[in-house]
Amino acid sequence: MINFHQVHKAYRVSGHDIPALRPTDLQIARGEVFGIIGHSGAGKSTLLRLINRLEEPSGGRIEIDGVDVTALDAAGLRRQRQQVGMIFQHFNLLASKTVADNVAMPLKLAGELSRTAIEQRVAALLARVGLQDHANKYPAQLSGGQKQRVGIARALATEPNILLCDEATSALDPQTTGQVLQLLAEINRELNLTIVLITHEMDVIRRVCDRVAVMDAGVIVEQGPVAEVFLHPQHATSKRFVQEAEHVDGDEQHDDFAHVPGRILRLTFQGEATYAPLLGTVARETGVDYSILAGRIDRIKDTPYGQLTLALTGGDIDAAIARFNAGDVHLEVLR
Ligand SMILES: Nc1ncnc2c1ncn2[C@@H]1O[C@H](COP(=O)(O)OP(=O)(O)O)[C@@H](O)[C@H]1O
Ligand SMILES: [Mg+2]
């Protein structure tokens, strides 16, 4: 649905070109939640804002639904922008307008609907984001999570088919973040809305995204299905984000378990395999014992996964490794 062909962007600052996005190819499919993760200054916002041409590319071609948006005239661009909603880290609501008026704003600007039709649409949108009782409040009277719900309702007002989210949960506490992400997942499913979401938190990617691109210094250094990148990151930047998400601190990262006897394995289970009693079975069959050195069981979007680091001692360890390899798990021998 969204296609970047060798798109690049440099900002001209006092006579110098600052490259923000190096020539990039990118394909985002209809209906997916596509995440872009990177540290501050990596070029995420630049990439996102090129999609609705809030930034003009320095070169390359951007197609949305087969239409070259880089070639649109002003009228074409206005129409195209109605197809692309956007939400922001700091919500960007108008403080002097009520919740309902904030949501009505894009519809009034578009000038296509009657007053009654706008009122009906706004009421439906506020109900959709759970704010039907707050229509006449002002932004200052709302919590951060409620403000972002207004932002989402406003972004959906013109019934776009793409929603761009620029660090939409970065100003929210963890619980509110969870609720807003859940709302985004719902509207993605129910409206078949394509969502492009940028963040510096791997946990946000893990919870809602289908695919992810990792950015570093204006370059996409790795991309793929979230399960792939999250469970088996290849690039150093991706690995760092995963370690941050797992709250592994600097010391643990470098723990080679030198003081632990035995062979050390890392097992990754996904989907149904997460609940299969493989560890017990293999222990009985091969006589190995193990201690669990690290572990986590969680979900990637809707798919459960488990990752365990084990030290194996006693019994037939090679047979145990072969048995794990034959099972529905991904196995890495760490030592
Ligand atoms: N309007 C601008 N003018 C000049 N430089 C900019 C502008 N916007 C972003 N940059 C620079 O481009 C790079 C990428 O920025 P940005 O896309 O905002 O990254 P991110 O969203 O990942 O933090 C940074 O070096 C930033 O300083
Ligand atoms: Mg940014």
Automatic annotation (TrEMBL):
Superkingdom classification of source: Bacteria
Domain ABC transporter: 2-242
Keyword Cell membrane (UniProt): yes
Record localization: Cell inner membrane
Pfam families in alphabetical order: ABC_tran, NIL
Keywords, comma-separated and alphabetical: Amino-acid transport, ATP-binding, Cell inner membrane, Cell membrane, Membrane, Nucleotide-binding, Translocase, Transport
CDD domains associated with the record: ABC_MetN_methionine_transporter
Membrane topology label: Peripheral membrane protein
Keyword field contains Cell membrane: yes
SUPFAM superfamilies in the cross-refs: ACT-like, P-loop containing nucleoside triphosphate hydrolases
Molecular-function annotations in GO: ATP binding
Annotated SMART domains: AAA (SM00382), NIL (SM00930)
Name of the protein described by the UniProt record: D-methionine transport system ATP-binding protein
Lineage start: Bacteria, Pseudomonadati, Pseudomonadota, Gammaproteobacteria, Pseudomonadales
